[in-house]
Amino acid sequence: KTVLVDEELFDRNPQIQKMKDYYNWDINSYACPRRIGLAKKLVEKLRPQLLVSFLNPSENEFEENVEQLFRVTAEYGTRLILDISDYFDISSQPQKNAALSYLKEKPTSS
User: Fold this and answer.
1) pLDDT tens per residue across span 46-82
2) 31 phi, psi to nearest 5 deg
3) Do strands 79-83 and 50-54 pair parallel, antiparallel, or not at all (unpaired)?
4) Residue 108, CA distances (Å) to 6, 48, 56, 68 in order
5) Burial 60-77 (b: 16+ CB within 10 A, else e)
6) Helix, strand, or coil (residue 72)
7) Of 21, 24, 78, 107, whose CB count within 10 A is highest?
């Protein structure tokens, strides 16, 4: 099995880097850049079972970026964990959140 993990999370956690050593699982884990275009290419090439990703601020501007990530992970059967916690804003005038805007317009199937 193959897992792609956000590069910052991957670099800070040795257990993620060497899952085989810590767990009795047959897993290869790789760092994934915080750029949707590069993450998309890695999913196409490696066909991982799991992608753990964050959105960088510039890519959180456009719903099309999120749509690309959803589309490629669905196409290759990759489970996606997308951390958008940096963009939660409960003020009276919240800033744009591409992932939430996209999901509002195109909800996922159950």
Assistant:
1) 999 999 988 888 887 888 888 899 999 999 999 998 8
2) -75, 140
3) parallel
4) 23, 20, 22, 14
5) beebebbbbbbebbeebe
6) helix
7) 78
